[in-house]
Write a structure and sequence with these properties.
Beta-barrel_TonB_sf; Ferric Hydroxamate Uptake Protein, Chain A, domain 1; Outer membrane receptor proteins, mostly Fe transport; membrane; mainly beta; ion transport; 11% helix; Maltoporin, Chain A; 13 helices; 22-stranded antiparallel β-barrel
Length: 883
């Protein structure tokens, strides 16, 4: 075969091996069953093939066999094998966030780029959600911890998930997989590979998976008909060509397409607050989970409430071309990676996640976003006896489109009325709790007195006052709630277009000072330019209710007190109902450059032990908050937030022991993030604040043992992390008005930052005789307690938990067929992915500083809390056929 000849004769066998075997390396190519000694583990963390133990970076390397045994199909599944990493989804699978060492970017806002970069077959995916999907046939995954900006570019300030899929082979082959499981799970996938000519090979993969939802949904007022949620229904296809035109050149072309059409994701009440009676009154059925005694935490349940659909349609497609050209005269390789990707998501949403018809977003394109990205990378890498050198450039053009909408249900106006009147009733019991007082505040020309606002509120909006003869009730027109409420139907439709261009030049060079001592220097300069244009439009008279209430500010102040008037008017002028957004245009542009880089020193004490120390500076680009953002009731003038940078120091040791069969690595890290981009939901809108300082310090450790028992290997990892915000005050924020909702952060442990995180896995596979092969695997992950909300409210705390995956297999010795019984989350661990404040359903933070020095007082917390839950126990059977 031509490929065999090339591997024997080309100046750089690694060039062909890199492409032909999907960056898994020549060693892995020679042993498709996976590594059997530490020397077999090849990684490309520094954009060149190296043994894992020679790389002065914290890398968790996971071969295909380990990934398959742990049931890894996407980056969320990857968590169970990677200590110190969490991956969560919120209102849809389009809102996916990866975090490493407690640092990551909430994925709900497409204006923010990722802190953890996702790279698939050399192509950078600019948002975690864009990299979330069925990964198909994987060769290996490398999780690089800490800033990797020199070689992987911006937006890798916390780390990189580097995914390498299987490439075409010149040896004909096919495989197929059929899966069935609980929750109605069914899946089928298959691939075929082989030569087209002696210079051209192909691989084609396709997969389809369906599953019922994990939630039972009470549809309340309707019109939703689906009674489950978080289902699965997607298909993917990936085609590849590998062209080897001569002994020095290889070209790999990949085209892929994925489509999802699912229902996801409803929130579930984990604490129901005092607003429950209003939801109950407006909904068919209870409308949400009834509160616990004393409004305490609720028992874990997958019972959800949503009267509106939560559909999601996601489409992801792209093409990449990677060319590698050996230059024998320079002992170098020129690499070109070109890619085009197009991602779109269209989402439906029940905003309040109750059975009442309060607010929603239909799945009609009005609540969606798109990401189109074109990238080009060029690298020239070579080496001699003393120097491994690399220079390159990278350019990208990205277009993001976002649409945002809001629809009022018929229950919105009476619900807001019940909320307002309940607050007024608590201060003045003479004012009844009523669903009909909105018009009291919005009646044109309203006055403060008994025949105006005061009388209207006292009668619940009826205007029936005891001012007739003998105290008889008389209807007073000026005391009736005749002002406008909120129009049922669409309230607004906004559209944003963000254009980005980025250009970078970089170099990474390792000087072999002696046979034992290496120095690595990397530098990168990145220039970013971004612009945003948007149109914020109120529809169907939306904003009129806000304007009417604002026009009556004097009457409201006269009747209820000047200090209370801004808060009351603010309830009428929330971001979705504010008249200030009537045909408001947004147009901004900004450009900035940043230097990032690294310096590393490594010393090999002997053949078994290498020690290293490093410094790295990472960079995450500035951006725009593509949302309605306001201070009080005034829209924020600029949506821009600044760049985030990190300075990271590491010192570690890598040990290869027991005749090269045991790996034991440990690293101390100290990272300081400046202007950390915090994206948080304040109950009414997402805001982005730059927190002055976030530190992440701790230890990473990894262990791997290829035991003397044939087919038995043990792998594990441990991460201790202390990720904390620095002290800051309101004056340190871009919008000081956000400080009350962030007042729990100064000096506190960041969200999604468990102090301890540990993984362990065991894999056993061997011949059983009679042409049979069998095995089993177990993979477990432990995380200590952590908070799942970016505002750190106590009700969002997740207790420590452990998840366990397992698999038992039996098949033919030549692996022509294998039958597997598998289970994910075998102990059915109940845990929360993300907890959040249910919109309009109570309040957690107060308007004044509380005795504990923050704006939070648990005794005054009336907030209803919802959560997106982790997956339950799933189990099933998979049949694999291979040739």
């Amino acid at each position: 075969m031509r490929l065999t000849n090339l591997l024997r004769t080309t100046v750089s066998a690694a060039v062909v091996g890199t492409v032909a075997f999907g960056f898994a390396g020549v060693a892995a190519a020679q042993d498709q069953e996976g590594p059997t000694t530490i020397d077999d583990i090849i990684v490309t963390a520094q954009k060149r093939e190296q043994n894992l133990q020679d790389v002065p970076i914290v890398v968790t390397s996971l071969p295909a066999e380990t990934l398959q045994d742990a049931g890894v199909r996407d980056i969320k599944d990857l968590q169970i094998l990677t200590p110190g990493m969490t991956v969560t989804s919120t209102q849809s699978e389009a809102s996916t966030t990866a975090r490493i060492r407690g640092v990551g970017t909430v994925g709900d806002n497409p204006g923010l780029e990722s802190s953890v970069g996702v790279v698939i077959d050399g192509v950078y995916r600019s948002r975690n959600s864009v990299g979330f999907g069925d990964l198909g046939e994987m060769s290996r995954i490398e999780v690089l911890k800490g800033p990797q900006g020199t070689l992987f570019g911006k937006n890798t300030s916390a780390g990189v998930i580097n995914i390498i899929t299987e490439a075409p082979s010149f040896t004909p082959g096919y495989n197929a997989e059929l899966t069935v499981g609980n929750y109605g799970a069914m899946g089928a996938s298959g691939s075929v590979t082989g030569p087209i000519t002696d210079q051209l090979a192909f691989r084609l993969y396709a997969g389809r998976r369906v599953r019922d939802g994990f939630y039972d949904v009470d549809t309340g007022d309707g019109p939703r008909s689906n009674t489950d949620d978080a289902n699965q229904d997607f298909g993917t296809v990936r085609g590849q060509l590998l062209w080897l035109p001569n002994d020095n050149t290889s070209v790999r072309v990949i085209a892929d397409y994925t489509s999802r059409d699912e229902y996801c994701c409803t929130g579930v009440q984990i604490r129901t607050g005092p607003t429950y009676p209003f939801i109950d009154a407006l909904s068919n059925g209870t409308g949400q989970r009834p509160p616990a005694a004393g409004f305490g935490p609720l028992p874990f349940s997958r019972q959800a409430f949503a009267n509106r659909d939560t559909g999601q349609e996601i489409e992801d497609k792209g093409v990449s071309i990677e060319a590698n050209i050996d230059i024998p005269s320079m002992n170098a390789t020129l690499t070109s990676v070109t890619s085009w990707r197009d991602w779109s998501g269209d989402i439906g949403m029940d905003v309040d996640y109750t059975g009442a018809d309060i607010a929603y977003r239909p799945q009609d394109g009005g609540y969606a976003y798109t990401v189109e990205n074109l990238t080009q990378e060029l690298r020239l890498a070579g080496q001699n006896d003393r120097l491994d050198w690399l220079v390159g450039l990278f350019a990208t053009k990205e277009d993001i489109g976002r649409t945002d909408s809001w629809w009022y249900g018929p229950d919105y106006t009476p619900f807001l009325s019940l909320l307002l009147s309940a607050r007024l009733n608590a201060a003045n019991p003479a004012i009844p709790v009523s669903p009909g007082i909105i018009g009291c505040f919005t009646r044109p020309g309203q006055t403060a007195g008994l025949t105006g606002l005061q009388g209207c509120l006292a009668t619940g909006g009826t205007g029936r006052l005891p001012i007739g003869p003998g105290g008889a009730l008389v209807t007073v027109p000026t005391a009736q709630a005749t002002g406008p409420g909120f129009t049922v139907g669409q309230g607004y439709q906004d559209a944003y277009e963000q254009e980005s261009t980025s250009f970078a030049i970089f170099t990474n060079n390792t000087w072999h000072v002696t046979d034992q001592f290496d120095l690595t220097l990397g530098l990168r300069y990145t220039m970013d330019e971004k612009s945003v244009d948007g149109l914020q439009r109120n529809l169907n008279g939306n904003g009129g209710t806000c304007a009417a209430a604002a026009a009556n500010a004097a009457a409201i102040a006269g009747a209820l007190g000047a200090a209370n008037a801004p808060t009351i008017i603010g309830n009428f002028c929330l971001p979705w109902s504010n008249f200030a957004y009537n045909n408001r245009t947004v147009s901004e542009s900004f450009d900035d450059g940043e230097v990032s880089g690294t310096i590393k020193a490594s010393y090999r004490l002997n053949e078994a032990i290498m020690a290293y120390a490093s410094y790295a500076r990472g960079y995450k680009s500035f951006g725009y908050n593509l949302d309605r953002v306001q201070s009080g009731i005034t829209p924020t003038a600029s949506l821009l937030f600044p760049s985030e940078v990190v300075d990271s120091y590491e010192a570690g040791v890598k040990m290869t022991l027991a005749d090269r069969t045991v790996l034991l690595n440990a690293t101390y890290f100290d990272q300081t993030f400046s202007d950390f981009q915090l994206n948080t939901f304040l109950g009414t809108a997402f805001v982005v604040e730059s927190i002055p300082e976030l530190t992440s310090r701790g230890i990473d450790a990894d262990f791997l043992w290829f035991t003397p028992m044939d087919g038995l290997s043990l792998q594990g990892g441990l991460t201790y992390t202390k990720t904390e915000y620095g002290e800051f005050t309101a004056a340190d924020l871009s919008n000081p008005g956000n400080f009350p909702q962030l007042s729990l952060l100064p000096g506190a442990t960041a969200s999604f930052a468990p102090e301890w995180s540990a993984t362990a896995s065991i894999n056993y596979d061997r011949d059983l005789g009679d042409n049979l092969r069998g095995g089993f695997s177990l993979a477990a992950k432990y995380m200590s307690d952590y908070n799942t909300g970016s505002d750190l409210l106590p009700y969002k705390q997740q207790d420590a938990f452990t998840t366990l995956n397992g698999r038992i297999s039996l098949g033919s010795a030549d692996e022509r067929w294998t039958l597997e019984l598998w289970g994910q989350n075998l102990t059915d661990e109940e845990y929360v992915q993300v907890a959040y404040n249910a919109p309009l359903q109570g309040s957690a933070f107060q308007t004044t500083v509380q005795p504990n020095g923050t704006y939070y007082n648990p005794a005054l917390d009336t907030q209803t809390y919802d959560a997106y839950l982790g997956q339950p126990r799933t189990y099933g059977m998979t049949l694999r056929i291979k040739y």
